[in-house]
Design goal:
This protein has about 110 residues and is an all-alpha fold. The chain is about 85% helix and about 0% strand.
């Protein structure tokens, strides 16, 4: 099952990078581009911040032993919150904002 987690992590990262590149190269400046960049950066950041969190946690256990849970300071908690709260909220805001703007543009063209 570890390969499934790795596959999902790599897929999230690659989709996020592709979305950021698409937004930078294809979309004119404006609110839609900002929303797409927010969604792409959040998708890219989620696996990166989770990896950094786990590396810091593992480094603390390797350096200080298993009883040292929480000795890494505020950095481990910071990256954990980025990966579990900030990135999903950023993706949600970027996705909903992009969908609303695209829907609004499509209804404006029909009129």
């Amino acid at each position: 099952m570890d390969w499934v987690f790795l596959l999902v992590t790599v897929a999230l990262f690659l989709v996020g990078v592709a979305l950021v590149i698409f937004a930078i190269k294809r979309i004119e400046k404006g609110l839609l581009r900002n929303f797409l960049l927010t969604a792409g950066a959040s998708l890219t950041g989620l696996p990166v911040f989770a990896l950094i969190h786990n590396l810091l946690y593992g480094l603390a256990i390797y350096s200080f032993g298993e009883e040292s849970w929480g000795l890494t300071g505020k950095e481990e908690i910071f990256f954990f919150l980025l990966a579990t709260v900030v990135c999903p909220l950023g993706f949600l805001v970027g996705t909903i904002g992009s969908a609303v703007l695209v829907f609004k543009r499509s209804t404006d063209k029909q009129d």
